[in-house]
Amino acid sequence: MTTSPVAHGSFILERSYEASPSQVFAAWADPDLKARWFIGPDDWMPVRRELDLRVGGQELLQGRFAKSGRETLFTARYHDIVKDERLVYVYDMHSAGKLHSTSLVTVEMRPRGAGTQLVFTEQVAFLDG
Asked: How do 86-95 and 7-17 pair as beta strands?
């Protein structure tokens, strides 16, 4: 019997923005705004992008690396949305047609002074070790 390695991890990223929680939420919810920052590395080009931000809705970002031609595919499903406060979603990351990882993500937008504290928590299973 052959076994495939799996590695688990988690991390939390925190960042302060000089913008209201509704503005920060919009950067995640508006497809045009999200396309400005949710991108890959310099030699990666998007091929297809979809965003249906509602509970049960899906997000898709497919792209290709210029030099190698290797394709990546990000697919997400939204499980909890509290406007201007929180997003919870699960996503799969594929590379070269192979499932690379599956993650549970919580994005919290907390008012802080005149701005917003964003807390991004991810729990991930890397399926290729």
From this structure: unpaired
Domain segments of the chain as ranges:
7-126
Model confidence pLDDT, tens digit, residues 6-52: 999 999 999 999 999 999 999 999 999 999 999 989 999 999 999 99
pLDDT of residue 116: 99
Rounded Cα gap, residues 74 and 34, in angstroms: 14
Kindly provide the b/e burial profile for residues 75-84, where b requires at least 16 CB atoms within 10 angstroms of the residue's own CB. ebebeebeee
pTM of the model: 0.92
φ and ψ of 14, to 5 deg: -125, 140
Q: How many CA atoms lie within 13 A of 69 on its CB side?
A: 0
7-126 is a CATH 3.30.530.20 domain: yes
Helix ranges, the chain (H): 21-29, 31-37
